[in-house]
Specification:
about 400 residues, mainly beta, 2 helices, 4-stranded antiparallel sheet
């Protein structure tokens, strides 16, 4: 039964980010009979995208392999850095939370498979997909297929839990990323319901915003998303959202008022995504977006509404081995400005280090990008123009 649930969940995520599945029914065009092309006509070879911008981060270390030992992982979806500097990983396929040092050394694990979450008892999880460590070191876990949030104390025992399956206030469908605002409230990316819900740190419902949709328009003054997986709050509590099913990144003011939407489907480029899956805000104010299927981390200025592109890190530019093909899903930043990225395909965690002085602001000032939308059939978003 566990394998079946995991398989169904994995298929959902694959379908969600595969444009032929998500968007294939949207366009119905008559396909004329193709014109015969002479066999001696050469087929043009596309020019690969080459990133020539500033190098903000470089590869530093990698840990993990598939398994159930304390130093192993199974489809790790989320990662957080605690106030103690340790790494807290939602080890999704193993239905547990793994705690490592900042250098990848195992410390402890919390949880087993199941549905129980009894006060002052060890937790049980069913596909945990989001994690956040509160300043008092309590650990908040989005227990996805149990449709709830579970809070653990510093010893890994259950403090409280809230939520149930459904679309109502305080209910969830595949809850994912977690974040804390400056008032201590917990923001939950309710991915299956394509919305954000906000609670007190005790689980008291405050508000919600967002709904399923594909058309990001400033005129609607509404937050529309398509099974978003990533969420982080910048220095003024604006929500930076990885809108995974729409292949874009969005910024919302408190209350869900759109500030900007950037992106469309593609392999490479400053505002192009294949699977935007997670967001982290660095101490210098950059938004780091983990684009899962393209193996990139893309950096933007999150301090204003224009959301300028600052640079990117690509795994294929720093080949770890000739067969390495990543799929990133979670991202977190520590006080030293180092980034930790989960790789669900290789059951690993990567650490990236700043290429320059970690306390320095990026000095790269990009030119205003020229947006060249692809034809509608190949561009599920429809242009990628930002909301201004």
């Amino acid at each position: 039964m566990t394998f079946l649930r995991l398989s169904l969940y994995s298929l959902l995520l694959i379908a969600m980010v595969n444009p032929s599945h998500v968007w294939g029914a949207k366009h119905h065009h008559f396909t004329p009979t193709p014109t015969e092309v002479p066999t001696d006509t050469p087929t043009p070879t596309p020019t690969p995208y080459v990133y020539t911008g500033p190098k903000l981060y470089s590869f530093d270390a990698m840990w993990g392999s598939k398994g159930t030992d304390p130093n192993q992982l199974n489809f790790p979806e989320a990662i957080a850095v605690g106030p103690d500097g340790r790494l807290y990983i939602a080890d999704t396929g193993n239905n547990r939370v793994v705690v490592w040092t900042a250098d990848g050394e195992p410390v402890t694990t919390y949880g087993t498979f199941g549905t129980r979450a009894d006060w002052r008892n060890p937790p049980q999880f069913n596909h945990p997909t989001g994690i956040f460590v509160y300043p008092n070191k309590q650990v908040y876990v989005s227990d996805s297929l149990n449709a709830r949030i579970v809070v653990l104390d510093v010893n890994g025992m259950v403090v409280t839990t809230w939520g149930s399956q459904g679309p109502g206030n305080g209910q969830f469908s595949l809850p994912h990323a977690l974040a804390e605002d400056h008032y201590g409230n917990i923001w939950v990316m309710d991915s299956g319901n394509s919305r954000v819900q906000i609670f007190s740190n005790l689980g008291v419902f405050n508000s919600t915003w967002g709904s399923f949709g594909t058309d990001a328009s400033a005129n609607t003054l509404a937050a529309v998303m398509n099974v978003p997986l990533g969420l982080a709050l910048n220095h003024i509590d604006q929500a930076v959202v990885a809108d995974t099913g729409n292949f874009r990144v969005e910024v919302y003011n408190n209350g869900g008022i759109p500030v900007t939407a950037q992106g469309w489907y593609g392999e490479d480029g400053p505002y192009v995504f294949k699977e935007p899956a997670a967001v982290a805000i660095t101490p210098s104010g950059m938004a780091a977006i983990a684009d899962g299927a393209s193996g990139r981390v893309i950096f933007y200025n999150s301090k204003n509404g224009s959301f300028e592109f600052l640079g990117e890190w690509r795994a294929k530019d720093e080949i770890l081995n000739t067969n390495y093909s990543p799929r990133f899903r979670g991202i977190a930043c520590d006080p030293q400005n180092r980034l930790y990225v989960t790789d669900v395909q290789n059951n690993a965690v990567l650490r990236l280090k700043p290429f320059k002085n970690p306390s320095a602001e990026p000095t790269f000032t990009p030119e205003e990008p020229t947006f060249t939308p692809t034809p509608p059939d190949n561009n599920p978003y429809g242009g990628g123009f930002p909301i201004r």
